[in-house]
């Protein structure tokens, strides 16, 4: 069970503030840059007075036993140890807790046309599936056409809110908020005062991860250097499935002085983690708790935390809402207030800085820190 709509209160924030008071340097295990050239003085997080927020009530579990759910994955599908696996976890939870029959799953292929995506969705419609969940913004164009042609079928799309049809529900996130927290973690843990970011594709969605990460890092250490690079340009989605290129880019960042790299690159994250392992460095995962991904068992020791994007929560909550015939229970955006994004603590590598991270989290929930979605 996840912590439902968890909130951090003043006690945590004050604990962090007291722990940091008078400690402008080396907070959370980080030192200055190699050779001492880079000033990596660290700030303390703001203290939050009163409760940061109230938890949103959890909707009652509906009976989904009569639903026939279709799920269209993005490239990589179930088993990518990242974005798609998070959606799969939501489906699995709905089956276990809402009595939902096993869903029909289909997966996009690298380089496929929009017609192929539309054909996949039409096949799910023809098979009597309702609702149908499209995982990823790449389905937006195809979904717009298919949903318009099938107004009696309910659709949801993850990571896109451009399809304005009454039978389409967007499942979107405040990625920048979760990325802020892992950026803060990187700044608290770095020993070189230089960290990296590897994005799968240089598009507005992945730029949100980069923007939040840099804001979080600089909120802690204003003089920290953040080396941001992307595997493929906008419009080329191969960056989400190119571990070799992920290794190449991350190696360059590690060789250039970054000691921690945040990877938001789908299946290409595996390449970043391999580079970290080879270089004796550290990395940050994305979407799922990648430390616990079976596919990443060989490299998990380099993963200090992951930016959790609760696609599983959004998929589960959507199915529950459809089963209850009440979509008004869904948030407009899955953010920190509703447990839609966050960070992982598996492996215990950031246990020593958790009070500081929770203080920043409380400040964001309370509105004391406004995280921008662009740089």
Automatic annotation (TrEMBL):
Region (Disordered): 27-61
Signal peptide boundaries: 1-21
Chief subcellular location: membrane
Cellular compartments per GO CC: plasma membrane
Residue stretches making up the ABC transporter substrate-binding protein PnrA-like domain: 74-374
Keyword terms: Cell membrane, Lipoprotein, Membrane, Signal
InterPro entries assigned: BMP_lipoprotein (IPR050957), PnrA-like (IPR003760)
UniProt cross-references to Pfam families, sorted A to Z: Bmp
Subcellular localization: Cell membrane
Gene3D superfamilies: 3.40.50.2300
Protein name: Nucleoside-binding protein
């Amino acid at each position: 069970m996840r912590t439902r709509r968890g909130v951090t209160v003043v006690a945590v924030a004050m604990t962090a503030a007291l722990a940091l008071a008078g400690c402008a340097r080396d907070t959370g295990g980080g030192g200055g840059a190699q050779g001492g050239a880079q000033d990596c003085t660290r700030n303390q997080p703001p203290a939050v007075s009163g409760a940061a927020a109230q938890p949103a009530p959890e909707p009652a579990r509906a009976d989904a036993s009569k639903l026939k759910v279709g799920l269209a994955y993005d490239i990589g599908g179930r088993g990518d140890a990242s974005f798609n696996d998070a959606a799969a976890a939501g489906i699995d939870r709905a089956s276990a807790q809402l009595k939902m029959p096993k869903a029909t799953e289909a997966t996009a292929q690298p380089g496929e046309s929009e017609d192929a995506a539309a054909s996949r969705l039409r096949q799910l419609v023809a098979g009597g599936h309702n609702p149908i969940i499209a995982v990823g913004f790449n389905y937006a164009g195809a979904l717009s056409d298919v949903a318009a042609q099938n107004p009696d079928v309910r659709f949801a799309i993850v990571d896109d809110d451009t399809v304005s049809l009454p039978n389409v529900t967007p499942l979107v996130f405040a990625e920048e908020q979760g990325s802020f927290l892992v950026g803060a973690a990187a700044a608290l843990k770095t020993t070189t005062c230089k960290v990296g970011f590897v994005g799968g594709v240089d598009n507005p969605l992945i730029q949100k991860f980069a923007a939040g990460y840099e804001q979080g890092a600089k909120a802690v250490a204003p003089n920290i250097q953040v080396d941001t690079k992307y595997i493929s340009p906008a419009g080329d989605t191969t960056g989400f499935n190119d571990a070799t290129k992920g290794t190449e880019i991350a190696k360059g960042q590690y060789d250039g002085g970054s000691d921690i790299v945040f990877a938001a690159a789908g299946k290409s994250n595996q390449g970043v983690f391999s580079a970290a392992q080879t270089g004796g460095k550290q990395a940050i995962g994305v979407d799922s708790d990648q430390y616990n991904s079976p596919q990443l068992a060989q490299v998990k020791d380099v993963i200090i935390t992951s930016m959790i994007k609760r696609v599983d929560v959004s998929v589960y909550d959507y199915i529950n809402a459809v089963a209850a015939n009440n979509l008004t229970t869904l948030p407009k955006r899955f953010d920190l207030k509703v447990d839609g994004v966050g960070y992982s603590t598996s492996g215990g590598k950031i246990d020593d800085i958790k009070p500081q991270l929770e203080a920043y989290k409380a400040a964001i929930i309370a509105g004391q820190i406004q995280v921008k979605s662009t740089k």
